[in-house]
Amino acid sequence: MESYENIHLNKREGQHLYIQLYKAIKEMVLGDVLKEGDRLPPVRKMSKMMEVNNVTVVKAYEILEQEGLVYKKIGSGTYVSHREKEIKDNLGEEVDSNKKITLMEQGQIKIEENMINFASATPSAELFPVEDFKKVLNEVLDRDKGYAFGYQEGQGYYPLRQILGEYVAQYGINTEIDNIQIISGAQQGIDLVSKALLSYGDYVIIESPSYTGAMAAFQSRGAKIIDIPLQEDGLNLDILEKKIQAYNPKLLYIMPNFQNPTGISYTQEKKEKLLELCSKYGVYIMEDDYLSELNYYSEDIGNLKQMDDEEIVVYVKSFSKIFMPGLRLGFMVIPGNLHGRLLRAKHTSDISTSGLLQRALELYLKRGTWQEHLRYMEKKYQERFDKMNDCIQRYMPTGVEVIKPKGGVNFWFKLPNNYSSQTLYEKVVKDNVVFAPGNLFYLDNQHGEYFRLSIAAVNLIEIETGMKILCRHIDSYINNQEPINRGSFIKPIL
Amino acid sequence: MESYENIHLNKREGQHLYIQLYKAIKEMVLGDVLKEGDRLPPVRKMSKMMEVNNVTVVKAYEILEQEGLVYKKIGSGTYVSHREKEIKDNLGEEVDSNKKITLMEQGQIKIEENMINFASATPSAELFPVEDFKKVLNEVLDRDKGYAFGYQEGQGYYPLRQILGEYVAQYGINTEIDNIQIISGAQQGIDLVSKALLSYGDYVIIESPSYTGAMAAFQSRGAKIIDIPLQEDGLNLDILEKKIQAYNPKLLYIMPNFQNPTGISYTQEKKEKLLELCSKYGVYIMEDDYLSELNYYSEDIGNLKQMDDEEIVVYVKSFSKIFMPGLRLGFMVIPGNLHGRLLRAKHTSDISTSGLLQRALELYLKRGTWQEHLRYMEKKYQERFDKMNDCIQRYMPTGVEVIKPKGGVNFWFKLPNNYSSQTLYEKVVKDNVVFAPGNLFYLDNQHGEYFRLSIAAVNLIEIETGMKILCRHIDSYINNQEPINRGSFIKPIL
């Protein structure tokens, strides 16, 4: 206890007392004055020692916990965590920098006007059918008046569910309207499934790399994530079976077509076997279909849901990539026996999705404008896709590996060993080109040698220009300079 | 184990195997063949015995768990629960009736065209400023084009946060724009705070009765809820302090003005002491302000957030009651140190709220149309409020207690002992009048002697007509008939 006597909080300083206390304890942890496993004094004891309010201590402990420096055991107290080197990198930073969480750590990125943006996997504003959508919005308002602004049924506006049922039927999925659940975007779908299926301590299996937003949702439930490295045709099923046997997971989260970030697709055979395997062990599958419509060269584009006789697949469909992300609309096709649980999760999350936007989308789909827009997007994206393949062939230095997808918007690259895409990023961004460093897609935030280029938000000229700049930097980086060791990446706080 | 031999699943029957298995086990539980604490066979063992897939057993066990008939211990197995009598009522029901969860159990209610609706606390469609909102929607689309449909910043559209900062300043809350978080309705706010603050096993204190949607959100996090009975001027602070000392809760959830469902408001003195108490013990407060703007006769309408020097109050503001519920828009004023955690929770939940609707609301607020609409709503609601008070005085039978609020839209009643508002409901609904039975607002789903009448969705004529019908039924029920014992209410599945 003695060491705490050296902490002196100063009420007259500009800085909040809890920040002062947080910093003092942090220094003790990083300076090894407090060791791994040491218990911090209970809140009331500490507040007496420091002559401050309990709330000051609580807040200080919370920031420490948030930074992973300490952890709580229920009913027992607060303990110093096992430390990793990276933590030290933060030292000295002002901590009102709760606010300085970098955007990229949250799966966001700041794009300046003049940047060439290979980082975003969502289409840019000029591709949106604004005028057509404005028309249907106004028609809905004239037709439904105030009813467009009332609460909508939790499961979603019935006519919209009806027409979405017809939409998925085109992709081989035959379902009842009752098994379609409207969601405020695919991320909400993932969150709802997590709420419905996962309790504290449950296991989830994911592909590695995968979509960070899904990992965050699982972790938020207190679930434990097992990641299995992707192969070029999907997950290795032998490894998957072993992991299922070992961990008895509740859920498998996958993107079987044009996976994000790798662009990898499963073969039809693998899809079938995967389904069989999960049926055998009673593992639910969340199939995240974020853009299988954008298929240019694959003949193997079937989804899992269409083969789901055992009703173990939750099919989550986003409109963000193929339509407009800001609508925050998507839907799920769910197993009948999850109906009640998912509806309750929806109610707990946001009651229902905006009725106005649901009604407008329904009218938009009914008009057939949708199919037209989809063909337009496909054409646009395929031009970019071909252009990107062309640029890779012409400009990408030898030594950089690439997985060539057959559709979608993402390309996945690997730098030669021990070169870091984060370091590359810092060079390239100075020339106004941005992309997504690979570590962002890994559970352990490692594997910095990978990176993702997306063609969703760049036109043909930008692809040409951007690839020239990027590849020049890669060339100079891997051919003229010492490789940098891994480990220096930003840590995600989630 | 022997008893399971009597189960015979028939693959050729129309019913799914998992339903057949579920029913068979349910009968064994209800028939006391399986006793409290008995362990069900592990999934693989059971599937061998029954000669079915694992997934069939998993699904059957899940439905049993969902119905509270069995529970799981992590890493140990599935056990028969302590049973309550009510469970038996469900027996014999078809269980594809996952789908038949009654609406009211989800905090919803089905309203027919010709019904007098005292049940809904949200305004009806004819009160919405549809034309004005249509105008700003179109202006936004013409001005921002595709950008209105791009992803919005997770924290919310900046100009909207700016103008909301000015809005709350009118109510005494001075905050930085950085501490305003846009949410897709107040329910999402509650969900985000739960995600940010609550882990498995944490304690939350709530008022009793309270808003069911909040309880569901806390329970979904695995938190434990302590409810404290409300007094006519708010929570008893001595009891509160004792509960805080005993349970060390993370969060207190309250509605200090015109509480839902009771209409109770805290005195200014009590608000101050409450804040002091929670500061002392380091307990965060979630202040749910769903309609303090609708103040007709109170002089004591201050909020907690305006006195929140220690930054422990999360102020959650809904627009559903005073504007339009279907927009799914609200906001929070948060303590600076929760900024990062709430933003991450938002990202995990739905990335961001619809940009189009945020931009339209910003323009609507900027035009000043808002203040005009608010005055209109206040006037409308006050007329109804006065009318309701008048009808209570004229028609409500002696023996029924009522708490008279000074604002808002809710009135809270108590039938004489052992009379059930659920029974009353079943009588009154036949005459096309509906209201909210009180048990829906309690954690234990008891206290059926209470009920709530709301004036949000009824006009003056409907109030007069509806109250006559309702009070006639009450009179005949409590004066001519045997009281009904409690315990027969519908159980919530949450």
From TrEMBL, chains A, B:
Gene3D superfamilies: Aspartate Aminotransferase, domain 1, Type I PLP-dependent aspartate aminotransferase-like (Major domain), Winged helix-like DNA-binding domain superfamily/Winged helix DNA-binding domain. SUPFAM superfamilies: PLP-dependent transferases, Winged helix' DNA-binding domain. GO terms for molecular function: DNA binding. Residues 15-83 form the HTH gntR-type domain. The keyword Transcription applies. Keywords: DNA-binding, Pyridoxal phosphate, Transcription, Transcription regulation. It holds the Pfam family Aminotran_1_2. It comes from the Bacteria. In the C-terminal section; belongs to the class-I pyridoxal-phosphate-dependent aminotransferase family. This is DNA-binding transcriptional MocR family regulator. It comes from Alkaliphilus hydrothermalis. The lineage of its organism: Bacteria, Bacillati, Bacillota, Clostridia, Peptostreptococcales.
